[in-house]
């Protein structure tokens, strides 16, 4: 996982002046494992912006590409269990992938989460 983290930092995040803090390998439930990651990043310039970025390994080659990005301040919940669940009046990162590693959600909570926008692991209610 360290080699992947270094490759992502070098190829994806350094060119856009971001620093990779943590990565979580995610995969679709019931599907064969595809290399897809949720990454916690911060910008290197002030004001600092904290983001959650979805990165996918290309099918044609050995490189990664950025798919989606969400600013942490805009998220109230990360629910990796049920993408079909509807939530009203919230900004949610609802993802059809399940986490194969949950340590980084705790890590995400530990850096720069505004108190008014709790970041909850799937299954917990933050609202």
TrEMBL record:
CDD domains registered for this protein in UniProt: PH-EXOC1
Sequence ranges assigned to domain Exocyst complex component Sec3 PIP2-binding N-terminal in this UniProt record: 31-112
Species this protein is from: Albula glossodonta
Endpoints of the signal sequence: none
GO process annotations (BP): exocytosis; Golgi to plasma membrane transport
Record region (Disordered): 94-127
Annotated protein name in UniProt: Exocyst complex component Sec3 PIP2-binding N-terminal domain-containing protein
GO cellular component, one term: exocyst
UniProt xrefs under Pfam families: Sec3-PIP2_bind
Any one Gene Ontology molecular-function term assigned to this protein's record: phosphatidylinositol-4,5-bisphosphate binding
């Amino acid at each position: 996982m360290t080699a992947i983290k270094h490759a992502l930092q070098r190829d994806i995040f350094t060119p856009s002046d971001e620093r990779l803090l943590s990565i979580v390998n995610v995969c679709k439930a019931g599907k064969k494992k595809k290399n897809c990651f949720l990454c916690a990043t911060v910008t290197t310039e002030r004001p600092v912006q904290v983001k959650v970025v979805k990165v996918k390994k290309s099918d044609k080659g050995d490189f990664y590409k950025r798919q989606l990005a969400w600013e942490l301040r805009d998220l109230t919940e990360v629910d990796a269990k049920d993408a079909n669940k509807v939530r009203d009046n919230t900004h949610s990162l609802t993802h059809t992938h399940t986490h194969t590693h949950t340590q980084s959600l705790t890590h995400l909570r530990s850096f720069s989460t505004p108190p008014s926008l709790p970041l909850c692991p799937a299954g917990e209610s933050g609202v």
